Inverse folding.
């Protein structure tokens, strides 16, 4: 069984946020982090607007941290995002 987004939506598996900076500083859990997140595209809907974005399964994208709907499927966390929630593609 799989999830297939409908219309102009994308299914993304969020990448866990790092709690340690590149220089090795451990960030406390209560600080206000930047409000963006990164994830890997798992499935793409067939809507006209999302098709124009030329996204591919497996690409990493940046989206608003609080954007989309969070779901749990087969013990994994995912987000269903509208095409408008995707801010950039990581290349």
């Amino acid at each position: 069984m799989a999830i297939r987004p409908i219309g102009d939506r994308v299914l993304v598996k969020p990448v866990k946020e790092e709690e340690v900076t590149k220089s090795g500083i451990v960030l406390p859990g209560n600080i206000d982090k930047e409000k963006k997140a990164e994830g890997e595209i798992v499935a793409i809907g067939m809507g006209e607007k999302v098709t124009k974005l030329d996204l591919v399964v497996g690409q990493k994208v940046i989206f608003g941290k609080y954007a989309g709907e969070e779901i749990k499927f087969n013990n994994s966390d995912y987000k269903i995002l509208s095409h408008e929630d995707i801010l950039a593609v990581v290349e």
